[in-house]
Amino acid sequence: MALSAGGGPNADLDAGDTVGVLMASAFAYGIAQLLVLGLCIVSSQGLGPGATSGLTAGWILGLAASIYHVCGGFGT
After folding, report:
1. Predicted local confidence at residue 1, as pLDDT
2. Is the residue at 11 inside a domain?
């Protein structure tokens, strides 16, 4: 890693590996979102179709809010 090689926390980015870091981050984010969606679906199995659609709608709103935040929304 960059820290073990004597670089700071941004050593990989300073070396020009921004695309690699972006791709790894996007992949990890996608996997995490799929896990959350799976948990919503599994947890609503015994609750009926209304619970499934409600949890899925909540996941979609949460996904939209997190993407909006990452893209510079919410005044940051």
Report:
1. 45
2. no
Q: In total, how many domains does the chain have?
A: 1
Rounded to 5 degrees, φ, ψ at 6 are 95, 0
pLDDT by residue, tens only, the chain of 76 residues: 444 555 555 555 555 667 777 788 888 988 988 898 888 888 878 777 788 788 888 889 988 888 888 777 766 5
> Which segments of the chain are extended strands (E)?
none
58 falls within a domain: yes
Is the CA virtual torsion 58, 60, 64, 66 positive or negative? positive
Residue 7: phi and psi, rounded to 5, are -90, 165
Burial of residue 52 (CB within 10 Å: 0-12, 13-18, 19+) is middle
